[in-house]
Amino acid sequence: MIKTCVIVGASHAGVNCAFALRNYGWSGKIILLDAAPHLPYAKPPLSKTFLTDQCEPAEIKNKSAYAQQDIDLRLGSRVLEIDSDNHTVFLEDASLILFDFLVLATGAKAVIPPIEGVHSSHVYYLRTLSDALKIKKATINNEKDKFLIIGAGYVGLEIAASLRKLQKSVVIVEREERILSRVTSEITSSYFYDLHTKNGVEIFCDKEVIRISKNAKQSSVLCADGTVFHADSIIVGVGAIPQTHLAEQAGLDIDKGILIDQNCRTSNPKIFAIGDCTRFKHPLYKDFIRIESIQNAVDQAKIAAANITGNNVVYDSLPWFWSDQYEVKLQMAGLPVDYDNLIMRKKSDEEVSIWYLKNDQIIAVDAINNPRAYMLGMKLIKSKSQVEPKKIKDIETPLSATSFLKEV
Hints:
Elements: E1 4-8, H1 12-23, E2 29-34, H2 49-52, H3 63-68, E3 71-75, E4 79-83, E5 88-91, E6 96-98, E7 101-104, E8 108-110, E9 123-124, H4 129-139, E10 146-150, H5 154-165, E11 169-173, H6 186-198, E12 202-204, E13 209-214, E14 219-223, E15 228-231, E16 233-236, E17 240-242, H7 245-249, E18 258-259, E19 271-273, E20 278-281, E21 288-289, H8 294-308, E22 320-325, E23 328-334, E24 341-348, E25 351-358, E26 361-368, H9 371-383, H10 389-393
Parallel strand pairs: 1-2, 1-7, 2-3, 7-19, 9-16, 10-11, 10-16, 11-12, 18-20
Antiparallel strand pairs: 4-5, 5-6, 8-17, 13-14, 14-15, 20-21, 22-23, 23-26, 24-25, 25-26
Helix pairs in contact: 1-8
């Protein structure tokens, strides 16, 4: 009897899982469902080159690749319900699909903060291609348009850099005391604060937006302290939350994401979950985390495919991320959590690395225009080697696998 694996969500996670299943020898049906009408595309460029350049969305795979691998890609197919007991997926068009295995790659959606007026037509978000197209259209309406971005995370900062490349006036308002406060150290935050202000972006921290209003000419943003900002267009970028409604309806265990084990299996042994929608206990950091990154999506996709095809493969990947802003490339390895020592190694204003240590072991590194530091950081994090902090700080110490090691 031919078996069927249904994948819900044609994201990086979902698409890579479908192709990985074939690589692992799955000979049954693969049905890849997505509510969007677009061919699956890469999301990272949406805040960068897609906004600034005359280019089409970057496809994850070309259209013919799905047919070549006998992957039944069904676009515009919205899943309404999952009957986990009877292994059935119900679609919006009233059809149903029986499955032997189900993979949830439902991703995350933009957080809509409790701000009065936030649902107005002049307020934009950036999570999908449709969102990006709306922002892109707004950038060509008027060359002198002023943009206000609510939220100074990586996506908000990337959008700001793209808008400045288009010569737009940009203001950022951030609720926290500093930009990037939830994801990195004060050193890295300060570097990117200076980078953006030098490029003409106005940044205001400690500003909690409570109301957005619009008159005939401009929008007004009112903050809790009484400060008022004016802009032509407003972009909200205050984070994302996992899409768990289908998992909840299917009776799966949920805790700030779909809970999965080291095999990417949910509380139902026939249902797997991968990508931004998942939360899991990381073997290196010994805590439950949720990671929004292409790396995590692709790695979990392969792990799920391996286990569906009978291979016991566990997740032990080291998280890594990147961000492009202006001419600066930030590469991050590991998670900067629970560190007891922080070291900045600075060769120049354009080439910096920030090293996070715990008990003289490197647990994360932020490498700014410094791919060698990034690669070295990856190696040292994985090896769990004891290092000498003063050697890291000394710019004369070579960037090599052994130069930072503590002498025995």
